Amino acid sequence: MIPVSHYLFLSLALFAVGVVGVLTRRNVIIMLMSIELILNAVNINLVAFSRLYGSVDGQVFAIFVIADAAAEAAVGLGIILAFFRNRKTIHADEMDLLKW
Amino acid sequence: MRTLLIPVLCAVVIVALLPLIAGYIVLVERKVMAHMQARLGPMRVGPHGLLQPIADALKLMLKEDVIPTNADRLIFWFAPVASVAAALVAYSAMPIGPAFQIADLNVGLLFIVAVSSLGIYGVVLGGWASNSHYSLLGAMRSAAQLVSYEVAAGLALVSVLLLAGSLSMKEIVQAQLDQGVWFVFYVPFGFFIYLVASIAETNRAPFDLPEADSEIVAGYMTEYSGFRWALYFLAEYANVIVVAGVATTLFFGGWLRPLTRYHDHFPGTHVELLDVVPAFAMIALALYCFRLAPRQPLRVQKRVMAAAGVKCVLFAGILFAALFGSDAVREGVHGAFWFLAKVGAYIYCFMWFRFTFPRYRFDQLMRLSWQFLIPLGLVNVIGVAVAIVLRERWDWNPFFSLVPTTIVTLGFAAWLTADKLELSGTDEDIAAESAAVLPGSGE
Amino acid sequence: MMLAKLLFYFFALLAVGSAVLMVTRRNIVHAAVFLVTTLLATAGIFLQLEAEFLFVVQLLVYAGGIMVLFVFVIMLVNLDIEMRAVRFNKQWTVAGALAFVLAMQVLTALWVGRKTFHLPAAPAALAERNTETVADALFSHFVLAFEVASILLLVAMIGAVVMGKRRAE
Amino acid sequence: MSAGNEAAGFGTARGVDTTVLGENEIILNMGPQHPSTHGVLRIKLRLDGERVVDSECIIGYLHRGVEKIAEHRSYPQFAPYVDRMDYVAAVSNGLGYCEAVEKLLGAEAPPRARVVRTILAELQRIASHLLWLGTHALDIGALTPIFYSMREREEILKIFEKYCGARLTTHAFRIGGLQYETYDTFEYDVKRFCEALAARIDEYETLLTENRIWVGRTKGVGVLSADDAIALGVTGPVLRASGVQWDLRKAQPYAAYEQYQFEVPTRENGDAYDRYLVRIAEMRQSRLIVLQAVEQIPEGPIMARIGKVLKPPPGEVYHSIEGPKGELGYYIVSDGTIQPYRVRVRPPSFFNLQAFHRMARGAMVADVVAIIGSIDIVLGEVDR
Questions:
Q1: Structural domain includes residue A10
Q2: Is A41 within the bounds of a domain?
Q3: How many domains in chain A?
Q4: Complex ipTM
């Protein structure tokens, strides 16, 4: 049997990679994708614990997380599209309209 | 490891046979098309073109592999493979007869839908990687179309799920056996929506916009040639078989024989009258082959035709022998026959539509999905839910509760088509429409 | 059991490997493909955890829906800019340090509590009728959250349409 | 050369601006190798998503210098060349040329020749429309009508073959009349074909006219108002679909048309659907003309007495006929030698193609295909 800790390590690895992606990449789309990765890491945790405690609550939570990810992706990509139309860039450090 | 043996065998059989089956579906399509169009179709390779698919496959494999300059080589390589992989994985939950199924997932139906929706990556990425405007347009069209029609197809499937109460493909068939009726008679509108949506999802005419040959050359496949192109082609036909299989399982009782509950034994045996039909159909086909064989112009063609006849006799023999086997054998063999026969009929409808209808325009396609099929699907689902409540709470006869549902849905459909579905909308309408669904095409 | 272990490590390696590749690729489309791979591997892990319904939801919604949206948007924005641009911003070191600290914290926590994590075999009922149990939980205990989620999705949908629509010229 | 933009008063003289693109705009080069540009037309489309912002027709890929060749051929020698312009309506081309030269010579074909010419020209019109119907439907995605329409066209081509030995580039007529007498069963063949045709046209209409998808794809697509059509020099079914009742067979009768009863079908909306209906109605009218004509082919000679060597007097002449695609005119200048000094052809497709730019504005990519199909161009004629 695979101990739960292995799932947690996996989740941790994905989470860390996602955090690094969000913090370091300049491309907003990749940042958004990294956030999806983080949410995914959380899902692994939730499902593993759901299994550990023999209840489906964790899976239900994971479903909510996925719904949230969908909403986030839709709005986030909408913003990116609108921004791209106006500024012709998708780089985070060039989004400096409010900085002056 | 013993438990793995049969699924692995099934998988190997499917993967090995599928290209051949796809090839012969293409041949049948060409022949059917030809006869509908007052011509003969392939006649040269083998008798009546029977060896044409093999010749085509050889040709495709020997063709030069062209990768356009500035194409993204990695994705260009990956995209057709992804398409085929998605199409093939979907077979793992498909019950071809009660005995022949790789895995009976308890979320089987959703799994098939989910996996075949992954096939879109092959299309979109292939279109993008080709570095060609035609391909990109095809990819964009495909992405928008598949996502839209998945919703409609999903709603159609929900109406069946409500009736069957399970996501497992086997249990859905079992439910139809228990309730004694194919679900297409309970939810004809669910079937109608699924039929339309499945044509759109497999990119077949009249919804073949992603590869519309007269507009964008070949859409996402424009830059592909040889074996990679063959992979796309294989994926397309594999997907056609998948949707046909899903429709068969959900709406036409899967592997069940027509009149499942009608038992009419031969005196003194347990062999049923209707179960003899497949064997005789095969024998009739064999006789037809034998009759044609002497008329073939070449000796080779005569022999191939006779071999086809012998093959039919063989099938007839298997079907006939299975009647006297154990129940499991009989159901397995005959179930597979009926399943494949229904799938074939469904695919024939696909072909028929293809040769009959002109192609939709993109905005019309979108409007059809969002303004007609999806509202209709919602009304249908609500109606079926109400009917089920009536049946379970007050013990109504399912037909009594489902017939009004169907009539209400029909009325709704009529209202939708009368008022909302003016296909030739004004320019502003079209612009607003496409701006909403496809960010790239508004005013 | 050997097979289950093999599968887990395969999927885990696939997930982490393609996640790393996703974050480091220059080409966004490649990054998206690797993210899809990660998501599929995660789905495999869900299946291995006997969360069948979640496995399918992951395939259907995440890989089949959300990521298609990503790919779609990527194709709408101009890629040439990205190909020439500097990939990372200047926070590379800070981010690395932060991620390292975070990882260390979690590792410590895991190490401390390592005794408590033994995965029992899933209760038979849970594995058999996973979809039904999830649905029961979703529509009884969590029904409020469910409705809130649906409103959230509605709002997001409207927001996305407004955002994606071009201003009338 | 941009046929689309240089029309009087419409568009501008520039081509498609490819330098400054808006967001999401792409330049799509449609053709010259494209399945539905009907030959080697090249269209540069500036697209916003799938919507056409600007378009430019680039022609000349099939230019063979037909008009220049005429200056080095004697009048009868040039006649076969005109068959190669609108190669799907060679008989009409020949008719126009022969009548133009006859006008220049001051000769007239005998009545029998004129009736036979009318029959063949109308059969050719039906054949041309049949081919158009099939290819247009194919462009819009209906795979089957082309095979049915080809089947009927085959009958017509067989009649041509029996009459003059050629199917496509027939060279059926000679200056001054006909070279060949009609063959024995000519009347019977023509009549039998015409009788079968009515049901066949009904069959196409069953497939298309009320088909929801067909109507949706063609109605309101490529609208051309009557004023625009006249200003752009559009003729033929495209003009009549815009509501202008102009048909040279009625307006300036030639051959034997003044003897026959027929109507000139028109429609009001000027969209692709109306062009389809007009052409279908025209096929029915042509059939009636042929039936009337074949009933009483007058006896008599088939050639006028014009001598062996044709030397028209110096001067110039313009003669036009109603070809299947519109006004097909020949402007011939003679310097009194056996060779024309200049031949200028007014091909209907060339002028009709000018209206493309106008029709395609704001259309979608799929509409572009429908519009090209509904104009019914033949590049051999556009490029000459």
A1: no
A2: yes
A3: 1
A4: 0.80
Tell me how close the Cα of D180 comes to any Cα of chain B, in angstroms: 34
* Residue range A75-86: mean pLDDT, rounded: 81
Q: Does C54 touch chain B (CB under 8 A)?
A: no
| Domain locations in chain D as residue ranges | 68-383
- pTM, full prediction: 0.83
Interface test mutation site (partner B, options C25, C35, C38, C56, max chain B beta carbons within 10 A): C56
CA-to-CA distance for B163 and B174, rounded, in angstroms? 12
Question: C164 vs A78: CB contact, 8 Å cut-off?
Answer: yes
CATH number at residue A50: 1.10.287.3510
Among B47-51, D4-8, D143-147, top mean pLDDT goes to D143-147
Q: Domain range spanning residue B100? A: 63-262+349-441
Give the C-alpha separation, B418 to B436, whole Å.
23
Q: Which residue on chain D is closest to A86 by alpha carbon?
A: D23
pLDDT in tens, C144-159: 888 888 899 899 888 8
Number of Cβ within 10 Å of residue D79's Cβ equals: 21
Sheet with D326-334, edge to edge strand ranges = D315-323, D326-334, D340-346
* Third-level CATH fold of D68-383: Cytochrome-c3 Hydrogenase; chain B (1.10.645)
Here the CATH number for the domain that contains residue C46 is 1.20.120.1200
Q: Would you say B159 and B190 are in contact if contact means Cβ atoms under 8 Å apart?
A: yes
Residues in chain C within 8 Å Cβ distance of A33:
22, 31-32, 35, 70
| Residue range C14-73, pLDDT digits in tens | 888 998 888 887 778 888 889 988 998 998 888 888 788 888 888 888 888 888 888 888
Mean of pLDDT values over C102-121? 70
Cross-strand partners of D51: D48, D364
Q: Is the pLDDT of residue C81 over 70?
A: no
In this structure, the answer to whether residues C24 and C72 fall within a common structural domain is yes
Taking the Cβ of residue A18 and every Cβ of chain C, the question of whether any pair is shorter than 8 Å is answered with: yes
B58 close to B227: Cβ distance less than 8 angstroms: no
| Count: domains in chain B | 3
Determine the structural domain holding residue A60 and report its residue range: 26-92
Q: Which amino acid is at D337?
A: T
